[in-house]
């Protein structure tokens, strides 16, 4: 027998319309052996993973952005088109296209397959989610479809092990037989007439091979009668968001306590082993305290991502866009902007990148410019610290925690300001232009897949920990150096940090920040906070820990800051452009440094004005 | 000859953008020339076709938004699509 195992891996590209379960299939094929990066020159996410068939063949699987056709209406779809046709530099054409279709609704997928056939590449059609189709009583004659299309067709269920066997077996068979040579590429951009003809042909195929059940499944329709109800739907959406934020604040507490205790213990341990002096100070105050104060927020970030991933997998995100379209439209935003903006609650970077689903440039720009105002998870550490230190842990109205309510208010402020800024942009720059269209598929509800969610969460956790291990760690070292050297003279009367570089920088910018109630320690913390917002917490920790305190950062802040200063700091963090990576992504995605500077400028102005007002009003009310 | 048949159907049908929740019918024609948009008319038309709106498809308006009954969620041959009433003006159904 011919041994294929040592031959170079076959390149397999997954192509499909949005919501066809392509990513679930990708996860099922590759497990956690995935690499997520970017295509050269563009910011389209490049997902590649490796798989091994039962016969031992190696596959390189590429998950291409979802698309309805090869017409390429957005940068994402351009990547799909170019990779499929082997036109992308540095990306050899795939050996096999795996077209993924949702077995419960194949109309648009089959039209795409007809278009893909024009490219002449070898194709395998996977009817995904066949379990759901069977459960609903939908019968599909795959053999007949195979004969009609002239390409291999296989059914699969990405979420069950057994559901992938047929696909793997077919892949093995195809590779053993040898894939056909690609035919000449006859693809041309389809006109409206071509699309009509293709859709009619696809509909004829569906009519010939699909047997619909006498009583169609109505679960999605029944759920939607509530969730898409004009009033009840909006109430459900708001309730959901509220629960999400309460959960982030309360469910994470036990885990956070554990992590923080772990780091405290590590600090004590190091103090036992390492003699006191510079090295001990570096390890305990610089590294353990610094990195620990950031890692502690991992549970909250994961809970937030858990909600976002669950809602995406459920199929609710598109509904949220439907419910929010008119409201967001009033603020000059596209309904689709809801998804990037909601992702921005986790982190503005994936949020800004998700704005690519908006094909109109003006809508996309507005969304990207306001996305950093949404409360990202990096602000959570800052908010939690200040709220924990200054807002009493009381229960109000019987059920809500006052701290949770303040958190909710901060989130609300972020949302309102994002809407206000985009409304202002619309009014100032494009008052008379017609608004671009809003059209999107509302997929049937599906039970979220545990494995898919777990892989998604793991990816996020890895990114966060990597950031904590690299960017944040190196910033912590820099801060520790700045806060430690030059060292205090022998006859010092003040704590050591008062003689350091950090104090010099802090005192230099302090006059600018004094009107908004910031002391010089805060001014010091803001500088490294530009690397990442959460670094500010760690920096405050370092600055105050080195100053002599041993207790928790919050405890010290409560004793050193007035309430007015604390509130001003919170407000500063709603608006301030304290994240260099976000600004870099805006520059890249918007295609120019001017958009980055515009974002930086307007956010800084908002932050300063709002903090100034907060501080002065709070002082007038006696909180100074 | 074909054109006159289509014209007759247009008169039969009404734009989906004016139909209310519960409306059910069959698409008689897709024509986007009169729809104001940042996109050219033929592009609006192509996008509608890609979402499954082709002549002969059955449509049913399932949901309406709260403000101005906009956007609408339309069942079209087994799939559900959300779109604004303005673009739905390009879809004629009866």
Structure, explained:
The complex is a heterodimer of chains A (624) and B (94). With 624 residues, chain A is an alpha/beta fold. Helices cover 59% and strands 9% of the residues of chain A. In chain A, strands 2-3-4-1-5-6-8 form a 7-stranded mixed β-sheet, sandwiched between helices. In chain A, a hairpin with a 5-residue loop joins strand 3 (45-52) and strand 4. In chain A, helix 17 crosses helix 23 (553-560). The termini of chain A are far apart. With 94 residues, chain B is an alpha+beta fold. Chain B has one domain (2-93): Roll (SH3 type barrels), CATH 2.30.30.90. In chain B, 27% of the residues lie in helices and 31% in strands. Chain B is built from 3 helices and 6 strands, in the order αββαβββαβ. Mean pLDDT of chain B is 85; it is low at 1-10. Chains A and B meet through helix 3, helix 7, helix 8, helix 13 and strand 12 of A and helix 2, strand 3 and strand 5 of B. Strand 12 of chain A pairs antiparallel with strand 5 of chain B.
Q: What's the topology here?
A:
The complex is a heterodimer of chains A (624) and B (94).
Chain A: E1 10-16, H1 22-30, E2 34-38, E3 45-52, E4 58-63, H2 75-84, E5 96-102, H3 107-117, E6 123-128, H4 130-135, E7 139-140, H5 142-149, E8 153-155, H6 161-177, H7 192-209, E9 210-211, H8 219-227, H9 232-250, H10 253-273, H11 278-295, H12 298-314, H13 316-330, H14 338-343, H15 348-354, H16 361-370, H17 379-390, E10 395-396, E11 400-401, H18 402-429, E12 439-442, H19 450-484, H20 501-513, H21 520-526, H22 535-546, H23 553-560, H24 563-575, H25 580-590, H26 593-620
Chain B: H1 2-12, E1 14-15, E2 24-30, H2 41-50, E3 58-64, E4 72-76, E5 79-83, H3 85-88, E6 91-93
SSE arrangement of chain B, N to C: HEEHEEEHE
Rg of chain A, rounded, reads 28 Å
- Biggest pleated sheet of chain B: 6 strands, antiparallel
Q: Largest beta sheet of chain A: what is the strand line-up?
A: 2-3-4-1-5-6-8
Name the pair of protein chains with the most residues at their interface, and give those residue counts.
Answer: A-B, 48 and 40 residues
Which class of secondary structure composition applies to the elements of chain B? Answer: alpha+beta
The mean pLDDT of chain A is 84
Give the percentage of residues in beta strands of chain A: 5-15%
- Overall geometry of chain A comes to elongated
Assign a percent range to the helix content of chain A.
55-70%
Please state the average pLDDT score of chain B. 85
Helicity level of chain B: 25-40%
CATH level-two architecture of the domain at 10-211 in chain A: 3-Layer(aba) Sandwich
The top level CATH class name of chain B: Mainly Beta
